[in-house]
Amino acid sequence: MNTRSVRLVPLAAAVSTALASGCGTVAVTSAAQPPEEPDITVAALPAVDLAGLYVAQDQGLFARQGLHVMIRKISSSEAIIADQLKGQVDISAGSYVPYISAQTAGARFRILAEASILEPNTRELVTSADSPITTVGGLAGKKIGVNGTNSIGTLLISLLLSEHGVSPRKVTFVTDDAGFPAMPGQLQHGAWSAAFLAEPYITFAGEEYGERVLADLDQGDAVEFPIDGYVATQAWAERYPKTAAAFVRAIEQGQALADADPNAVQAAMAKYDDLAPQVTAAIALPGYPIGPVNRTRIQRVAQAMLQFGILSSRYAAEIERGALVTSLVG
């Protein structure tokens, strides 16, 4: 059983520090410095993995740091990279996978904070209620719906398939551009044999359609796998260091509250995921790490991407010596 070992500080201390000082694990001296740019846009999936963001918004934690945050819903972090490079989005909240890929292609991003760590029942493969597929092995030769083709979904599923003796090359990943909110309904139409879902859409799929969980992705080499983070371009982070610091302080507070109080997560998500209260109340929660970005965790993502061909082998040396991840973490 997973023991939520991702916390870097005691939970009670984290909540107390975050709420009392407004600094989280960020230096106290930075709290008095107002942001250079108070109005920022954050692109985010409407998923419980990013509850720290939604709790911070719901609890007014950004406002306390002098920020006005507009959250722009997206289907995947892969879908927003072009806009972010054009300056149309300040910060994105989503999977690390497309950002690591973009970094190898010459883009320059910076991970400001971690958002979530995989926990049981928070990312799963789901089939329709009447599907004949009852084992992971039964997916060979089938189509699997994902919210992004080269994403955390394809990576976690590849890990799962490999551990069950199925080459990831024997399945076809199909991207649903509308993302998680549309995918449970799309699965009913038979376009795919299974769908990759995150909470709260796993719970919604069961409540609304009776769809069944084929496999929990929190197993084997994927246990406590890093899922999402908050990412800015390096140019933005260097131009607005006080804004970035204010955002991280608010996120630290939101992370601490999300980890301590499931009710706060449910209340915040109910406002942003457009789902019925009975769905939001039943969701499973990931881990919400607190503290500096952990290079070792991000390195797991880069190495898995190399293993399954999401990154070319020509980047192997750069990945193995940690240079790629260092360029993202700073």
Tell me what the structure shows.
The structure is a single chain. With 330 residues, this protein is an alpha/beta fold. The protein folds into two domains: 11-118 and 224-329, 3-Layer(aba) Sandwich (D-Maltodextrin-Binding Protein, domain 2), CATH 3.40.190; 123-222, D-Maltodextrin-Binding Protein, domain 2 (3-Layer(aba) Sandwich). It has helices spanning 11-21, 51-58, 61-64, 81-85, 97-104, 152-163, 183-188, 201-209, 234-239, 241-260, 262-272, 277-280, 295-307, 316-320, 323-329; strands at residues 39-44, 68-73, 91-95, 109-117, 123-127, 143-146, 172-175, 194-198, 212-216, 226-233. Helix 1 packs across helix 10 (241-260), helix 10 packs across helix 11 and helix 13 (295-307) crosses helix 15 (323-329). The protein is globular, with a radius of gyration of 19 Å. The two termini are 33 Å apart.
Please describe the structure with a list of short key phrases separated by commas or semicolons.
single chain, 330 residues, alpha/beta, D-Maltodextrin-Binding Protein, domain 2, 2 domains, 5-stranded mixed beta sheet, 15 helices, 39% helix, globular
Tally of separate helices: 15
* Beginning-to-end CA distance, first to last residue: 33 Å
What's the CATH H-level superfamily name of the largest domain?
Periplasmic binding protein-like II
Mean pLDDT: 89
Overall body shape: globular
CATH topology of the largest domain: D-Maltodextrin-Binding Protein, domain 2
Strand content range: 15-25%
